[in-house]
Amino acid sequence: MKVLSLVPYTIFPAKVGGQKGIALFNEYLAKECDLTCVTIQNNDPKFAKGYHVLNILGNSSLRYINFFYFFTLRRIIKQHGITHLIVEHPYYGWLGMLLKWFCAVKLVIHSHNIESTRWKSLGKWWWKILWYYERMTHRAADYNFFKQDNDRNYGMSAFGLKEYKCTTITYGIEWAEAPAQLDKLNCKEKISALHQINQNEKIFLFNGALDYKPNYDALLVILNTLNPIWLNNIQDYRIIICGRKLPDILNDLKEYKDKNILYAGFVDDITVYFKGADVFLNPISDGGGIKTKLVEAIGYSTPSVSTYNGSIGVGEEAGELLQIVPDNDWNRFAGETMLVAQKPAIQTPADFYHKFYWGNIAKKAANFIQS
Fold first, then answer.
1. Is 229 exposed, middle or buried (0-12, 13-18, 19+ CB in 10 A)?
2. Can you tell me the distance from the alpha carbon of 190 to that of 331, in angstroms, rounded to the nearest whole number?
3. Do 109 and 202 belong to one domain?
4. Residues 6+ apart with CB under 8 A from 97
5. Section 143-156 average pLDDT
6. pTM of the full structure
7. CB count, 10 Å around CB of 38?
8. Strands 237-242 vs 261-265: parallel, antiparallel or unpaired
9. Is 167 in contact with 145 (CB distance < 8 Å)?
10. Judgement on whether residues 106 and 225 belong to the same structural domain of the protein
């Protein structure tokens, strides 16, 4: 099996969850098969591990309608003896279909969420047009990868996909066991020292790209709804906000500094924060797909509180580390967070790593399209 991965946007260097999701999926899939990645010029091939990268697509948004890429990719497919083409997201569906028909390759659509319904939740009027295109693309595929079971079920019911053509290929993590408790304590000491936090203070963590509307909305909930509840009910806690591109209107959260809010911005090593936090906050109400930061937090044995929407794709494998509350029930969210912060430390169940370790995920993907 020789796979060509078509990635039409920036993933190198991988900084946010979506970028890591593709870069790491390809890295681990390359251990199961011969893999070549075709992507845009903005991507630096030196960051790819274990597979060959051809960054030959243009950076302009016009790349999505450039018909000449058909001839370029057809040549690459013939030169490399490609048997399977994986298209990330449905936007290059037209190109994937042409290559399937004219190059006799198996077409795999790797969906990261139901794009049309995600745009609908964000208020875009043209979401229905995308819905029909997305359905056509998935129907033309030989195999369909979805990030979580709800999306897979949606694909079968709304798009009319055959069950045997669909599987769940979730977002993953690179470690296969829980971190040592001493490691977590050391990480808390590091971030406490860095941000001048007392050792007895509980650390609540929120992380995400803050120019993405669902993350920004969640941040506003933390600042204006949840934190006032905590200020009136508990002491000795800090909320650390990590993430790039905070809107200028919030002025680096300076007016919240006396309200137990710390803005760390984009940090070089988010791992230290995940391990050192006492509770990970995930008050996400919009957007689709699986919330990658929640997977990482639980992978580091960090107790997490999430809305139902934010928890989709992460189920009983998380055990007692994940507390799920109804969407928009912020009083309950605040209360669960206070309870979780007082519980003794526990480790992530082994079943979680069986599902979310990248090595297992890549094997599942390779076996599915080979069978």
1. middle
2. 31
3. no
4. 107, 137, 140
5. 96
6. 0.94
7. 21
8. parallel
9. yes
10. no
